[in-house]
Sequence to fold (635 residues):
Amino acid sequence: MPTPHDSTFSATFTFGKHRGKTLGVVAMEDAAYLKWIARTDGMPEVWRQASSLALKGESVAHLSLSNSHVELAEGSQKPVLAYIDDFTIAVHFLPNHPLKERFKEEIDGRVWDGVNKRWKIPAVKIVKTVEIFGGTKQVIADAGVRELYRIEKERRDALDTIRTKSNSDINIPTLLDLYPYQRVAVEFIDRAGGRAMVADAMGLGKTATAIGYAVYKNRRTLVVCPKSVKINWHREIRRFSGLDVCVWESSGPIGDIAAPFHVINYDVVDKHADALNKIGFDLLVCDEATYLKNRKSKRAKAVLGYWPERKVYPGIKTEEVVFLTGTPILNRPIEAYTLLNYLDKDRFNSWFHFTQNYGGYRNEPPRNLIELHQVTKDLIIRRLKSQVLTELPPKQRNDLLVELSPVEMRDYSKLIDKLFRKWGESGKPSVADMPAIQSFLVERKMPRVIEMIDELMDAGRSVLVFSCFIDPLHKLHAHYGKKSAMLYGAMNTSKRQITIDRLKTGDAKIGLFGLRSGGMGIDGLQHSIDTVIFLDQDWVPANHEQAEDRTHRIGQKNPVQIFYIICEHTIDEYMRQILLEKQDVIDKVVDGKLVSGTRSKNVFREFVRRITQDRFKDRAMNFIDVDDRTLDAEE
Fold:
């Protein structure tokens, strides 16, 4: 393609996925986009012409692009970029430069050097800085900066190419072959410098991907994961690598301390942090990495370190880190900040700047999502099942309504009256007040659930039953006896594994799982179970998706049937509708990109708003505050 004409670097896109970039920069980076604009009816005619001319390397100065043209103030000059070292670049421009405010708004990590009257920026910001000023022809750069720009540009282009590949030809010497898309993820992690997030949809085998990378690079690896999946990690490491594994319990290590793989659960890292750091790991793998979304939580401090308390919480020291998560955001993009900051402190070094740019603070709606995608796509790789496993059978969700009797509805109404009296007196609706009503409704669902389970058993099918509460699971276990197996938060690791093994082998036909403790990190059930029942609903929709995908995974041969049991004309219906809306946001996270502009609401706040609005249609009822701390009754 011809070199873009100088005039194209003065025309900036005000629309589309390259909004904010100049025509010249887009011509160099994404010529296919300009071809699409040039041939698509309905596009602004002036931009169709401009795109066509830019592709030919011709001038666009004669076109009327005034709305996107950056007029330089009289006396202004091109910014000067000077190399300081491999980590820092100096940027000089006049105080009246028209792009000064945009530079200050979009380049975080910048530091004002008052002595030399210049800005100093992290070297990783070089590509973004050049784009802001209109492209390489709109800046003056020394040889060091030009070389850094070339290297960073090539790195990002290479990662963009890798993420779209269907397979990789790299040699990964695991005992079991990885799937093609898993091989691509290993190549992506390697090209990203060993610091990346694998956010593939649940069920695509992120465990095997992480093991594959460790084997490919021969890294001594520490895996940090939820307690419930430690045994699974041990087994998968042995299956894929054939290497020794040391498993850490609260009491200390079990196995050879010299083993190349170590596995520990989040809650005991703090206790053994000093001993772990003395071992000297090369690679840290964090499974279900959203456990670390709150940087001030004890588990996040122990794993990632915490600078204000660095002597107490130095964190696990490794050069490389791989975060694994099927839900890179749970409620808001801001919840990914801690992980992004740890992956690349130079680029994501200001929580304030991140929230100002992308929203999420105090329930602000997400914004600038295309830009967020652009700045994270060289750190995050995500594929959906529909993209890589076309042979996987479909997942079918069904809402099954249960009608309460008149007597039951009267009792339910009394509970609702009591709830609103309490909220009215305190002026602060609390999620902690909800279990009484939820438990009442679950009890009314039990006869229908037992009927369903019996029907499934008669048809020779096995089933998983999830609940946020432990009591209904105990009742079902007492009813079905040895045909059932339980898994909940208070169980130790060995008993959990016995439950999983009984379900895998078919010795038990009914799995009775706590929603959170049994909803993540468990593999193998897809070979024996294709039906899931939810007795009740959690306040976080991602927890349901994770639970659903215990059966909708690689190896599933049958369509997966999922039943949500809903009591008609009750709070169940409010919760179900809100969770479906929020699920719509989470379902649209692709390659680190949130493509929906739907506002991400706090579920409980929205629940309170709707139920209050319906109950008091004739008069205002406003609460001064909401206590929306998530209740985890089963733990």
In short: Residues 179-388 form a domain with the Rossmann fold fold (CATH 3.40.50.10810).
